Amino acid sequence: MVLKSLDSRLDLKNFDLSELEAWLKELGEPGYRARQLFQAIYAQGQQDITAISTLPKSLRYMLTENAFISSFSPEEVLKSADGTVKFLFRLDDNKRIESVLIPQAGYYTLCVSTQVGCAQGCRFCLTGKMGFKRHLETAEIVNQILYARAHLPQPWPLRNIVFMGMGESLHNFQHTLKAIQIILHPLGLNFSHRRVTVSTVGLVPQMLKMSEAANISWAISLHAPDNQTRNFLVPVNKKYPLDALLEAMKRMPLPPRKRFTIEYVLLKEVNSTLKHAHALAKLLKNLPVKINLIPFNPHPGSEFQAPSWELVLQFQEVLQKYGYTVTIRQSKGADIGAACGQLDGQPQAA
Ligand code: SF4
Q1: pLDDT on residue 349
Q2: Which residue has a Cα nearest atom 5 of ligand 1?
Q3: Does the annotation mark 118 as catalytic?
Q4: Most CB atoms within 10 A, among 11, 41, 96, 302?
Q5: pLDDT surpassing 60 at residue 5
Q6: What is the best residue among 97, 111, 113, 120 to mutate for testing ligand 1's pocket, by most ligand atoms within 8 Å of CB?
Q7: φ, ψ of residue 332 in degrees (nearest 5)
Q8: Of 247, 262, 329, 318, whose CA–CA distance to 294 is shortest?
Q9: Catalytic residue among 21, 29, 98, 263
Q10: Cβ(95)–Cβ(345) under 8 Å?
Q11: CA of 160 to the centre of ligand 1 (A)
Q12: What pTM value is reported for the model?
């Protein structure tokens, strides 16, 4: 739960560095004090203002009068047989969010949430079924990372941050961008831009805006090769249909050798026939993409099923014959409800 005071003090984790500099300047402090404070919070993980020894005592006192540093501790931690860990956090208003820590070859990837619930209503997604409750604040996004970084089960680095947890991150544009700035800043969490991935169902104006504001990696949740199927699976397609989405991808600046990841959940008899594979290959022609196929992870009450493994491999093969790099995501953490599309913010014990 967020340790947040009930008074009017400000949570310092809701500031990016430029905002911290502006705020301290208003209080008569030079810019380098903001950098010291920022570094203490993120690089050193400091949670107690009075213990920040790089700041003079008078400033520490003044800060504690006006501000605090929030932190998270999970309400529940679930461990999968495959090593995946799901953290359930209860927020100040008793709403819940989840983050998923995924072990890979000698390092970890953390999947973070940006909203409680989600407004996009993708048909195959449990979070979408919750509906939209609220956006997370910047502090609530970065606290997921700070908690996970401090509680890694193995002595491996936390290397990747993916915005693929609960919510559509670009719908919560302002707080997602501020969190990204903190994650990438050398005095902040100091992640490489190659290691931070924003996933979107295709909010076209926000994609263009974010690509100008931050140098990050992109995952586009496509899930269908034609508008009819996509309208059914991903309702936002009615607002931003495939041609608008692909046009936006062409306009987004990508550094050399960088490609979009196309996320494609495979649903039996809905979007996973070989006809769909050929249509997908033709749709993405000439775009800098790699394709990640995700056999559907069932959840209670779901109307969909995964196709057979044989069909998944055939789907992959068709795309590979067109020259695409195609991976199949072996979703981890399905036994603890932590796999793609399974996050619902409910404790296991409930
Ligand atoms: S798939 Fe992503 S965007 Fe779609 S409903 Fe689920 S959380 Fe929201």
Answers
A1: 55
A2: 128
A3: no
A4: 41
A5: no
A6: 120
A7: -100, 160
A8: 329
A9: 98
A10: yes
A11: 20
A12: 0.94
